[in-house]
Each structure stands twice: as structure tokens, then as C-alpha cells.
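Appendix B: a complete holo record

For completeness, this appendix reproduces one full record from the ligand-bound portion of the collection. The bound molecule is pyridoxal-5'-phosphate. The inputs are the chain sequence and the ligand SMILES; the output is the full three-dimensional arrangement of the complex, encoded as C-alpha cells. No fields have been trimmed.
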Amino acid sequence: MSNDLSYLKNNISKIIIPDYVTLIAVSKRKTIEEISYLNSLGIENFGESYLSEAIDKIISLSDKNINWHFIGPIQSNKIKLIAKHFDFVQSVSSEKIIRKLNSACEELDKVMPVLIQINIGEEKQKSGVIISDTQYVVDLVNNSSNLDFKGFMCIPPFGVDPKPYFDKMKKLLDTYNSSYNISILSMGMSLDYTLAIECGSNMVRIGSNLFGSR
Ligand SMILES: *Cc1c(COP(=O)(O)O)cnc(C)c1O
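The structure of the chain with pyridoxal-5'-phosphate bound, as generated:
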């Protein structure tokens, strides 16, 4: 491999997060070489949102110690593949997806850790559960034998101050954490992860700050 990947080391050194925060390196549109190099530097959690390119990478890197997180919109005809290849699904957002993912995992004899994606800005074009439907969806996930409910994920609206949305998400986690034994709040991307952590995030999904722009 002749590419110089040292910029990745430089980029990592600029991402300062507390120990209790899990870093998800968002590697969509990025190469196997880049992922492999970051993994050699100790990064073990990678996030992908496009299934077909992700599967190629997952298969090529199957000898590595990597947890693969699916973070993109879920198409129901792709659920079996997601269940098979991924270790964690962060973008669970509807009853249909929950039922199909649960039965796909059952067939694979696998228990999948999942986050429920919340459409915190109630944006029409975004997937995710709106706050008023949360209880119903939480119970569906919690009653799915092959899904392990771990917490919530969100992508706040772009171009506006995310703080009010992050605060709402933290309140949501606090509402459910004790009765459902959940603790993960996946929020914060390259532009806003510091603020997200201040607001209670313990899992950040960082793409461009790590890999450079896509
Ligand atoms: C692409 C993506 C990210 C990373 O975004 P950056 O701004 O590049 O850090 C995080 N979460 C999701 C769901 C994404 O699709």
C-alpha cells in the first residue's frame, strides 16, 4: 500500500473526547485501507450507512477486531443483510423494521443491540420516530427477543443550533433509562460533537473530521 495515511493519525489526535464516550468512525465512502489503518491505531467501532459498499468492507476486514454499526436509513428488503453483517443497528425507526429485524436475527440465532432513531426535529424528509410515538416503539423493541434495546440516536436538523434538540434527547434518555436499563445516547457528528457531549451524549459519530471531507 503506497498511500500515505498519516493524515489519519493527525486527525485522530485532534478529536478529544472523554473516556466514557464511544467514538464511532463513520467510514461511508471511505476505503478499506483507511479503515484498516484507523483500526490499527485502536479504533474499533465503525459506522456505515450505505449497505452494498459496507458489506464489501466488512467482508474484506473480517479478520479485524471491528464492531460495525449500521447508521443509515433501513430499507426493509435489506434487513436480512444488515442482520447478517452488522454488530449494532442505530437507525431502528418503525414497527415494520423492528419486526423484520427481529425475525432476521432470530433466524441467525443472533441478538442485535439496537438504538431507536428519534426524528427529534420532526422533519418530514428524515427517518426516525417522533417523540410522541416513543413509548410504543420502545415497548416493541423491548419485547423483541432478538433485539437488545440500548438507547437512542438522533440527527438534529442541519443549519440551526442543535442544543435544544440535544437537550430534548437527554431528557428522553432520562425518562426511559431506569425502567428499561438503557444508557446509550448516540448524538454528535463532526460539527457538533463537543456540544453533544456537554448535553449528555456518550456516543459520537464522526466522519469528516476523521477522514477528511467526502
Ligand atoms: C455521515 C453521518 C455521520 C458523520 O457525519 P460527519 O459530519 O461527516 O461527521 C454521522 N451520523 C450519520 C447517521 C451519518 O449518516
